[in-house]
Here is the input.
Amino acid sequence: MLALHSESQCRFWVEDLFSCRFGRRNIFKKMSKGKTLIIGASGQIGIELVLKLREQRGVENVVASDIREAQSPDLLEGPFEIVDTLDKQQIYSVINKHGIEEVYQLAALLSATGEKFPEKAWDLNMNGLFHVLEAAKDGLIKRIFWPSSIAVFGPNTPRIDTPQFTIMEPTSVYGISKLAGERWCQYYFNRYGVDVRSIRYPGLIGYKSEPGGGTTDYAVDIFYHAIQSGKYKCFLSEKTMLPMMMMDDAIRATIGIMEAPSENVKIRGSYNLAGMSFTPAELALEIKKHIPNFQISYESDFRQALADSWPNSIDDTEARQDWGWKAEYDTTKLVETMVIEVGKKIAVGT
Ligand code: NAD
Here is the structure.
């Protein structure tokens, strides 16, 4: 009789049988094959995270998923599933089909897009998180990674070396959803023992994927414009200092916190994480060392108010102490890398 069913149907059949008899939690711990699922894998972070995890764990062991088709052919070198993170059954089905042990939940509406669609941002950012927290609570998966952001801070937060524990009061729907998400993560850990881990990413800068509608996107766009036209009009003012991080460092931190022994992860809301800080004017000066004729102009838009409510720099003492975090990129190394790698991409027309 079992031979007539697909693998996923069999899993559900077995799940139903055993959850009646022995409870879900135990049987799924035994059935787990230890694979990883990335939700939101076609985004700026997801593409790079999938590639790194597949390199480390084997292509077949990392399942990429997104609501849209794979945005990079690299994603299709291993398993890829279309998953709407707002559809809990779809998530459970993919977890069962592939024997998933840990989930990286990256699907979200980012800060700038969130201000255009506040209800959608709240719905996606909160319910996407709830569905994976529930999957862990139901015993289907063992570990969750869910990213928070420096957007959890607000205008009353100390702006220089912003500490881990401080005044929050975010002003954007994105920041409100991330702060609420942090509190839910801590709640599911305290109440149900869910092993959820999180870091507050600063603005992320990389060359393998496009940014997805955040306030710090200028720090990626600027390289494409500098190389292609020698000019860039920045949507933040020249003195807007924000915490930033090279994508390689962010991916190392993400995998690092997930691989840390559980007892070392003492904060189950979200950890501060620092890389570097710079203003658009400072970034432009660094780019001019490589492209001497580069010109930057400034015309602030609605994103200025978001940036003005966020920290200038971050104190990440707890992440360093608890699970050994240390950034490798400073602004000079970041600019060197971006100029070379974006230059190569433009040269081959990708
Ligand atoms: P992104 O916008 O580039 O990617 C998000 C992905 O989620 C997209 O591929 C999108 O198609 C997918 N998605 C949207 N709705 C979905 C749905 N209903 N079901 C499944 N997938 C869906 O974002 P990113 O920059 O890669 O960010 C990933 C995470 O990191 C987000 O939680 C974001 O808040 C957080 N973060 C990012 C930054 C940054 O600078 N990029 C900074 C701080 C925090």
